[in-house]
Design a protein that fits this description.
It holds the Pfam family EAL. Keywords: Plasmid. It is built from 10 helices and 6 strands, in the order αααβααβαβαβααββα. The protein is an alpha/beta fold. The protein has a single domain (4-196), classed as TIM Barrel. It has a 6-stranded parallel sheet. Helix 7 links the parallel strand 3 and strand 4 (123-127). Helix 2 (15-29) runs parallel beside helix 5.
Length: 199
């Protein structure tokens, strides 16, 4: 299994934008299959976020499926670094159209405490492996407390073994979890309709 960064490691300029467009197209063409499954978190690449015309166009497309009843959460890449004002404009635009926003991979690159407290978020997705040392318990507790006080959903990403939550991470037991400890990818015997319809 490859992460998007691994899959796109040798990408040329513009290819991340094409990938983001393709993902949004898959969502818009298959919205009926996704409604009722809970919020759909969609990563938006730094390249797309740094191109206002592309970013705003994708946000408008996703707002169209939100109006059909699909809850969308835009994950803002930790690699995005165009400045606070540009980020605020993107977040405000997305939220004005009914979308929710998440700071992605907190603890990596530009996803830090300054970004968390400097903007209005609906979710904070913590890159657990990036912060997985006992010395970071104070920071993780600070993140938890900030999220609780500001009604920001806290999600611990890349949880490979739930037993880690019974150790020094126990104070974070109220957070939502995402990772292979909860579900693992399987081999498809038949192409699901979601993928078939995109061909």
């Amino acid at each position: 299994m490859l992460s998007p960064g691994q899959f796109m490691a040798n990408s040329q300029p513009g290819e991340w934008i094409l990938l983001d467009r393709e993902i949004v197209t898959l969502v818009t063409e298959n919205v009926s299959e996704l409604i009722g499954m809970g919020p759909l978190f969609i990563n938006i690449s730094s390249e797309t976020l740094s191109s206002p015309s592309d970013a705003y166009a994708l946000i408008k497309s996703l707002a169209g499926v939100y109006s059909l009843g699909l809850e969308i959460v835009l994950e803002i890449s930790e690699k995005y670094s165009d400045g606070s004002e540009s980020l605020d404009s993107l977040l405000s635009f997305a939220r004005s159209l009914g979308l929710r926003v998440a700071i992605d991979d907190f603890g990596s690159e530009n996803s830090n405490m300054a970004r968390l407290v400097g903007h209005k978020w609906d979710y904070c997705k913590v890159d657990l492996p990036a912060l997985l040392v006992p010395e970071n318990l104070t920071l993780l507790t600070e993140i938890r407390d900030y999220c609780l006080a500001n009604h920001v959903g806290l999600i611990l990403e890349k949880v490979e073994d739930v037993s880690i939550l019974s150790g020094w991470l126990k104070p974070l037991n109220g957070a939502s979890l995402q990772g292979f400890a909860l579900s693992k990818p399987g081999v498809l015997n038949k192409m699901p309709s979601l993928l078939q319809s995109s061909r």
